[in-house]
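Notes from hallway chat w/ T.B., transcribed later so I don't forget. T.B. wanted the structure written out for a chain they're using in a teaching module, and asked if we could keep both sequence and structure tokens in one place. Agreed to drop them here.
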Amino acid sequence: MKYKTEYNPDVLNCIANLSNDEVFTPPSVANQMLDTLPQELFSNPDVKFLDPFCKSGVFLREIVKRLDEGLESIIADRQQRIDHILKNQVYGIALTTLTALLSRRSLYCSKEANSKQSVTAFTNPNGNIYYKPMHHTWVNGKCKYCGASQDVYDRGTDAESYAYNFIHITDIKQIFNMQFDVIIGNPPYQLTDGSGASDDAAMPIYQKFIEKAILLSPRYLSMIVPSKWMVGGRGLKPFRDSFSSDRHLKLLYDYEDASECFQGLHIDGGVCFFLWDSTYNGKTKHIFKSESGRIAECEHYLKNKYFDFVIRDANVIPILEKIGEVKKFSEIVSATKPYGIRKDLFNKPEKYLDAGISERKYNGSVKIFGVKGIKGGARRTEAYINSDFVKNNRDSIYKYKIFFTTSYSTNAIEFPEPILATPNQICTETFLLIGPFDSCEQQQNCMSYLKTDLFRFLLYIGHGTMQVTKSVFELIPLQDFSHPWTDEMLYKKYNLSEDEIKFIESMIRPME
């Protein structure tokens, strides 16, 4: 029997190219993560490893390869060594029936661990890869453990429920009655809520796996997840506040382009993997690779004084230090739905008969800007509605303002053209309101600021997800709009060095 075999191509590399919310991990990435662990772990016959979200079994397979080599001087006989490793050191919890079979096939060379094809003779067909079909626990239409929508995931007994064992079983010791030294893997990333929203707005779930794993008190924890938790994401603020303050977070490898880890797969905002060390207490070594391939590395506390989000690129920090703690541009940016009018006004006008929607201006009406169509076919449009229908920000109706889109790609340097709105013009929640301004001159001066490289650079740093909210503008200093602004004026005001200016301009293309 020869357990260690070279595959060309590795079948798990092929599987990793499949696109799914449950992203399969390439062997190369699994090994990068394993490299961050103290390598003496793989020479210790007592260390126990757990992958609590097995999909292909790649993490456990690569761990076995390392243990096989590391324990050679301790357990000389190859079969005895493999038996010891598979029965006493590596454990997994699969996500679905299919991934349980696939993981056993990767680890034991057989989908049943007690078959004659298995590389180790287990007495049960599952070996140490656990999976049990579960159902969500519904409370007011949501699962109390993962937040899944009952309308979407209450599928009966025959269909896959996606009630993942690791976060739906209160006490994991019911599965394996032991303490794990290392928990490592790639959890599911999100659940649909049935709203038809984009992937960016889907409900994240990976943070629940991280929180549950920490509760198990491993010596080391390593996971690869979307980087979105650092810079936004639906409902992720409590997790971000907690995890970015965790002094056990020793290493963070952060890729702006997810295809660096998952070939051919786009994940907005990129992905990261980390090493959490229960014995460590200090700053995080943060290695960031930009979409252009530039690498920035520093040791810092992820929680910072400039921003509610994590600053991913270390080169930005000296610029923020020179800007200092000043009033933020976000102070003149509205919350979402600035006039209280939903974005479906133009797609479902029958819902808004009281609005008096008309293509023509009439007495008592105001012009409203919005979007008609969905996703790739959506286009800006305008109409007139009764001014009495407007409930929020009524004092701004008769002033000048700027309407800024609430959604565009995270890797876009140039934002969609803002709308320079005059008195008697409003917008749906498709836009945020910047202002209002007492004069057209102030509005135009503010617009000159929006077009500067410094503004667009700081906006790009703050814009970590497709969704644009008030908080995205928190890194940008507020200016006096009694006069126009240029980059030369701003660079001089904040005493930026030539290197800092070159860095800003290397990321920002001139606006047309």
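Follow-up for T.B.: Residues 1-9, 14-20, 194-199 have pLDDT under 50 and may be disordered. Might be a good example for the class.
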